[in-house]
Amino acid sequence: MTNRSSLGIDKALTRFATISRNPMEAYAWNKVFPLIPVAGRTGKFYSFSNGFRRAAIDLKRGSGSAFKRFTTDVSLTDAYSLEESGAEFPVDDVDAQFAADDSVSLREAAAALATAELMIDLEREMAGFMVAGTITQNETLAAGSRWDDSGVDPRDDIRDWSQEIQKAHGVARSQLSLLINRETADVLVENEALMQFFRSQVPGMTSMTQEQLAQSLRIKEVVISDAVGNTAVEGATASNDYVFGKSAVLFYRETNPVPMNPRGFGFTFQARQRMRPDGRGGAVSGAFAIERYREEPRSEVVLASVLQDMAVTNATAAYLGLTVIN
Q: What is the pTM of this model?
């Protein structure tokens, strides 16, 4: 059995990995599931009825009578249970010495690789929620009605989906976000029907920006997942593809979430800080950390991990479109 001992959280490597990783704009998980820092390992939140409590009732108060009183519908839900996700890479002592002679730090390389694997895994976790089993409001676009088919206007689907969300959750179209991958985004920014929205002001337009795409769809924003991952099993030839596939999710994202009463489709509950139980290496702010371990006789292990939990809090605040492009 390998003799393994902890060297604690490495603050310098944690800062290095945070700075050197791919920009967070490449990932969608932290936008679809906005971050809520929490102190406890587990927690609950309160849900309040969203206001659809009555049929048509006259709320005018007659002289000497009381106002109409409604029931306050409050429910308590087990919101989250923080779990560790992580990836580790070994660094051989001799290899590290040889690399150091060439001014290369294998320890930093291992931290960067482990962080990249972790970020891709979090994107996969986000994509795993975007299925019909989770989002009950959904439809599959048939051939001929997909967004890259000739003559199709994606606004027709966005209109229908947004109406279903508004009926179920009370959120207007202008407050909604659309999650798509880069391939779908490239289709939409060149969609003829959508570009007509701007051609009175920009004749000859051939492509839109991400912000213009959101304007043409009459929604708040477009969230693009650029993450690419290997779909092959370990040891097989790599086969890379977008982590989030050819689906689209129209959803409500709460911009200022709070732990006690989070609104919106879902959230990422994250630890406010990380600290080893034995206190070695001190604490780092936030849920992400790089730890090091010693494995005898001649290697060190670099671990990138995060302590958090993604959770869907309001499934009716989203609508899933499956196979939106061919």
A: 0.86
DSSP 55: S
CA distance 184 to 2: 47
Q: What is the spatial distance between Cα 253 and Cα 263, in angstroms, rounded to a whole number?
A: 8
Contacts of 203 (CB under 8 A, 6+ apart): none
Q: Output the tens digit of pLDDT for each of the chain's 326 residues.
A: 567 788 888 889 999 999 888 888 889 999 999 988 888 888 766 665 555 545 556 677 778 787 776 666 666 666 688 999 999 999 999 999 999 999 999 999 999 999 999 999 999 999 999 999 999 999 999 999 999 999 999 999 999 999 999 998 888 999 999 999 999 999 999 999 999 988 888 888 899 999 999 999 999 999 999 999 998 888 888 899 999 999 999 999 987 766 555 578 999 989 988 766 555 555 667 789 999 999 988 999 999 999 999 999 889 999 999 999 99
- For residue 187, what are its two tokens? 């289709």
**How buried is 183 (Cβ within 10 angstroms: 0-12 exposed, 13-18 middle, 19+ buried)?**
middle
Which tokens belong to 63? 């002289």
Q: Which fold has domain 3-41+82-322?
A: phage-related protein like fold (3.90.1690)
Q: How many CB atoms lie within 10 A of CB 257?
A: 20
Give CA–CA dist 20/16, Å, rounded: 6
- DSSP class of residue 56? S
Residue 176 backbone dihedrals phi, psi, to 5 degrees: -95, 155
- What's the full length of the chain, in residues? 326
Q: Rounded to an integer, what distance in angstroms lies between the CA atom of residue 263 and that of residue 279?
A: 35
Q: What type of residue is 127?
A: A
Would strands 42-48 and 283-285 be described as parallel, antiparallel, or unpaired?
A: unpaired
